[in-house]
User: Fold aldehyde oxygenase (deformylating) from Oryza meridionalis.
Amino acid sequence: MASKPGPLTQWPWHNLGNYKYALVAPSAAYSTYRFVTASSAAERDLLGFMVFPMLLLRLLYGQLWITVSRHQTARSKHKIVNKSLDFEQIDRERNWDDQIILTALVFYLVNATMPQAQVAPWWSTKGMVVTAVLHAGPVEFLYYWLHRALHHHWLYARYHSHHHASIVTEPITSVIHPFAEEVVYFVLLAIPILSTVATGTTSVLTANGYLVYIDFMNYLGHCNFELVPKCLFHVFPPLKYLLYTPSFHSLHHTQFRTNYSLFMPVYDYIYGTTDKSSDELYERTLQGRDEAAWRPDVVHLTHLTAPESVFHNRLGFAAVASNPLGAAASGHLLRAASAVASPLLSLFASTFRSEANRLDKLNIETWVIPRFTSHYTSKSDGYKVSRLIEKAVSDAEASGARVLTLGLLNQGYDLNRNGELYVVRKPSLKTKIVDGTSLAVAAVLNMIPQGTKDVLLLGNANKISLVLTLSLCKREIQVRMVNKELYECLKQQLQPEMQEHLVLSCSYSSKVWLVGDGVTDEEQMKAQKGSHFVPYSQFPPNKARNDCVYHCTPALLVPESFENLHVCENWLPRRVMSAWRAAGIVHALEKWDEHECGGRVTGVQKAWSAALARGFRPYDHHHHPGITHDGRGGL
Assistant:
């Protein structure tokens, strides 16, 4: 929103959400019907018929630019502006498709009111020449002066400041404007199209090709990395005045009073508004930063979960990834798209980098194994997944990472013995493997309501259930179990003096349930009304009861200084991080020189105290007395 919003700031369909696409439906259906029922090829309205396919193509094209751009900026080396992207900007730019809908509506209107458009051929050389000349002349010239006018304090405060709120630009930043400002741009950019229609030189390819050109140049100029090769300017030096670069336009967003041109910098050179550092910034960003400046210190290795998580990661749909998994309003559409994309993604043979963050001079990256939870639980895919993880460990060491955390099922005991397998195979491994058990247990303890005397432990026997049980016994909390196998497994690993706090029970009467993987809805139905379900597993339990309290999976609020966080980690809310992921960051900040994998444990209190000292704060979406003002748990 502009600092002082002026008239017609909001788009007319602002409150319709995704139903705004219904505005196009009547015209799309009518134009398709006319095209199909035309008695001859000469009567078919090609331009009108192509409006809807072009709408879909431009949506896909825009999303591809988002994905490619975010993949490049996650690599960090060729960034132009090395600043943080935040949730506020993601929310502000979530309506990037509005201008595509407006274009379709305008095209349908022109097609209905100008009979010349209804007989447009596929191609017209004259129309292409007219379009190119009118764009390079009147459009670029008028846009330059319009843009300078928009930087007058009155117009800037009411309209253009909305666009300039994004210092770190993404391709879709290019089309984020108040409605009134976008309408003015449309009138300006319509000059070539309307002129060719009026002169009878229009064609389907010319009109739609001009739209693709505008999209390409808009998205290109707002990338936060340099990608225009230097050889183009060597081969054809005048191109410098006809083609802007991402670094050239980035200076407009950081300096505000320079580089006003639309796509052709010639008018900035003519009127003396070219930023003096344009050439130097282009050279520097094209060369890239030194490897030491962008190599990761911490790598968090995660994987895809459900099929819809394909679009929930940072390289997917920005508006979806900025909210917890499953919170998207268009859930059915997302699942349908995931059904198509998931098999393709599974063909990837190695991890991909999806996110890059920074905290206290630490470079932190998230790498994704392109496999779903179903692959990890499948016996036939287990070996392939293990090889992918092992390769990621080797890649992390090669990149200079000091710590690698194993997220979600990447630390499964059956898969790699909680990460110990990779240390055994490579004893000289410099990258420390962290499974995050200590901090995860500490987060669970913090969620247990103050004054709790006994808990019911459900789930499987694993490392975290053992460390959690030991911590509870040390605090003289009675740990009840209904599963004899779990009871016997944990009991034999506890010291005799601790075993007295372990109880095999047939009762489900405890008010606090610590739930791991495999807890069924039937078991939950046995809980008393008002019971607390506290997960200690990587995945949240299914919520089978409305009269009980469900806590979140072990997680912490990140420090305020944590940079470039604009996606949600799976089902967790904004600026909340799983304890397993946070553990690796704390490990690196504290410069601990030991692995935490296999049977090794950092120490629950040690990890918790270090996390709080580094700015992490306890998180639980259910606020209970166990969380005090200073962030310490009730236990």
Summary: The CA atoms of residues 310 and 341 lie 7 Å apart. Residues 22-287 form one domain. The two ends are 45 Å apart (CA to CA).
